[in-house]
Design a protein that fits this description.
Blueprint lengths: L1 E4 L4 E2 L4 H9 L1 H4 L2 E7 L2 E7 L5 E7 L5 E4 L5 H12 L4 H4 L3 E3 L10
Antiparallel strand pairs: 1-2, 1-3, 3-4, 4-5, 5-6, 6-7
Helix pairs in contact: 1-3
């Protein structure tokens, strides 16, 4: 899986160590972190320092894009990323999710 952050941290074949380092280095991580399995299949979070964080995941097209219903702390998000990397499905069942509605491009203008 590919790890991408807003700032300097990234890894094309992410490991548990890479994820732990990213969450330990607030400055190197920046305001977002993404762990992707494929172009439209990923988990991502935005937030800084200890939180709050917004957590989302996507499983393909825009119809399968979800956001956690509550703000999270950094430790919760790190745990979700580690489980996602290990393909441990409990990361998803640990939170309540709401579907994000896809907006047509003209709605952004």
């Amino acid at each position: 899986m590919k790890l991408e952050c807003a700032e300097t941290i990234s890894a094309s074949n992410a490991t548990e160590t890479d994820i732990r380092k990213a969450f330990a280095d607030d400055q190197g991580r920046g305001e977002f972190i993404i762990l992707s399995e494929a172009e439209e299949v990923y988990i991502q979070a935005s937030g800084e320092s200890n939180g709050p964080y917004t957590l989302e995941y996507r499983e393909g097209d825009a119809r399968r894009h979800f956001q956690c219903t509550r703000d999270l702390q950094k430790g919760e998000v790190e745990a979700a990323f580690l489980k996602y990397l290990q393909r441990d499905a409990t990361w998803e069942s640990a939170f309540l999710w709401t579907k994000l509605e896809a907006k047509p491009w003209w709605k952004f203008w």
